[in-house]
Design goal:
Elements: H1 10-37, H2 41-51, H3 53-63, H4 69-95, H5 97-125, H6 127-143, H7 145-161, H8 175-187, H9 193-205, E1 215-216, E2 223-224, H10 229-239, E3 243-247, E4 254-259, H11 260-268, E5 285-287, H12 292-302, E6 306-310, E7 316-321, H13 322-330, E8 344-346, E9 351-355, H14 360-364, H15 380-388, E10 397-400, E11 403-411, E12 414-422, E13 445-446
Parallel strand pairs: 2-3, 5-6
Antiparallel strand pairs: 1-7, 3-4, 6-7, 8-9, 9-12, 10-11, 10-13, 11-12
Helix pairs in contact: 1-4, 1-5, 1-6, 2-3, 3-6, 4-5, 4-7, 5-6, 8-9, 10-11
Length: 448
């Protein structure tokens, strides 16, 4: 019997129409899933402002993907399964077992081409148009309470079957992914290199603590609270400072902060012989473990430009200014009083001279392989102290992670400059007489 000679009953026609409708719904939902999941929040905000009500519905969906994703996936699955089942029943009633086999092949090909590949490709090629097209129907589907309740129940069942409590929020984007996106944007000329650097600085800003940016205790300029106004003004002029901490019995006894403008006003009024304790203002104290992302808005809100940093024992660890915090975002800010030598000098392909107070993570941007960061040190000088176990003499060196670190300048108990020399890479076949069990990660100390 010829397939073309088969007579369709009314029921067969109805079933065929239902199959085609389910195929159309499947096609639209596949397009919607791709369009909405690929739409960024920033783009959705822009479309919400430009497209009115339709754009607002799109923003409502994109802001919380869990609102639509599970209902869409559940409805998509139902349509595919019901459509395939009905097609199999129809083929069996018309053509028998061979008809079912042919129907399976036809169903796979048609669903893949018509209901998967074609709509998803179109959604990728026309992201805004497809997202706006899908926003209205998907919003109604997401708010249709039977589908909404059923999808939540099934998700709850999956959380019971799977170990753990499941994800409550998401998706999450790591810092590395954000920087990778910024790198791609630079390559495609979407943003400038300087903007990419600013993005990286903002990300690092959230992870930085006060200890990493403060002026350390040995570099602090302080005055006694009993000094005369004229004497303190001279100290501030010589050091190019507008604020200095005033101390009592010692540097661990900070009793206030002296402002240059207060001293200038007092000098103008003939009070230059008075003690600065009469003019100093209340000092602000912060722990060295406080995150600068929290400290910056606090200092801005309280109109404070200088804070004294204290350690866990209450002693003075250093001081931090508003300028120090802002420099972590925009880079170094130098004024006419700054007389600092360069933090980094490239002496050759494998030699680098750095200030010992330079943070390890900044130095590692210039080194390969990097120096270890996970330890009780923040700076290059701190790493040298850790490796040596004592205050180095000038010229004393230590090897670490394939680099030689030489203390070029040592002032009393403080390292000023470090010369970093990277070792020549060894050929894979050259064992160089290494002892068994010794690795390149172990540090050795050698004098000069």
């Amino acid at each position: 019997m010829s397939l073309l000679a088969v007579t369709l009953t009314t029921g067969d026609v109805v079933m065929l129409v239902v199959i085609l409708l389910l195929l159309a719904v499947t096609t639209f939902l596949a397009l919607s899933e791709t369009a909405l999941t690929r739409m960024s929040r920033s783009k959705a905000h822009a479309l919400a402002e430009a497209k009115g009500h339709k754009g607002q519905r799109l923003l409502w969906l994109v802001t919380r993907p869990e609102r639509f994703l599970n209902p869409v996936l559940l409805t998509l699955l139902i349509c595919q399964l019901v459509g395939a089942t009905l097609l199999g029943i129809l083929a069996d009633s018309l053509f028998g077992a061979w008809g079912v086999a042919v129907a399976i092949v036809i169903n796979v090909v048609v669903v893949f081409v018509v209901a998967e590949a074609a709509p998803k490709t179109w959604a990728i090629q026309h992201p805004e148009r497809s997202a706006l097209l899908a926003a209205g129907p998907v919003t109604m589907l997401a708010r249709f309470w039977p589908i909404k309740i059923l999808s939540r129940a099934l998700i709850g069942m999956s959380n019971v079957l799977l170990p753990g409590k499941g994800l409550k929020e998401g998706p999450f984007v790591s810092e590395e992914e954000l920087l990778a996106l910024a790198d791609v944007a630079v390559e495609e000329d979407v943003i400038e290199e300087e903007e990419r650097d600013l993005i990286e600085q903002i990300i690092e800003f959230g992870d930085t603590v006060v200890r990493e940016v403060m002026v350390p205790r040995p570099d602090m300029v302080t005055v006694s609270a009993e000094f005369r106004v004229d004497d303190v003004m001279e100290v501030m002029i010589l050091n190019g400072l507008s604020r200095v901490p005033a101390v009592g019995e010692g540097i661990d006894d900070v009793v206030g902060v002296v402002y240059a403008k207060d001293l200038m006003r007092a000098g103008r009024d003939g009070k230059g012989a008075r003690a600065v304790s009469e003019l100093m203002r209340t000092a602000r104290f912060v722990p060295e473990s406080k995150r600068i992302a929290e400290l910056l808005p606090e200092m801005q809100a309280d109109h404070v430009h200088l804070a004294v940093v204290v350690d866990e024992y209450g002693g003075t660890a250093g001081l931090v200014t508003l300028e120090d915090l802002i420099e972590e975002l925009v880079g170094e800010i130098h004024d006419e009083y700054d007389r600092e030598e360069p933090k980094v000098e490239r002496l050759g392909e494998r030699e680098l001279r750095v200030n010992a107070g330079m943070p390890i993570d900044e130095v590692n941007e210039l080194l390969d392989p990097p120096l270890p960061e996970d330890g009780d040190w923040d700076t290059v000088g701190g790493l040298v102290f850790h490796l040596l176990g004592h205050v180095p003499a000038e010229g004393e060196s230590v090897e670490c992670a394939g680099h030689q670190l030489r203390a070029e300048r040592v002032q009393r108990r403080r390292i000023g400059r470090v010369l970093i020399t990277t070792a020549e890479p060894r050929p894979a076949s050259d064992h160089g007489g290494e002892q068994p069990g010794v690795t390149g990660d172990e540090s050795t100390v050698g004098g000069s």
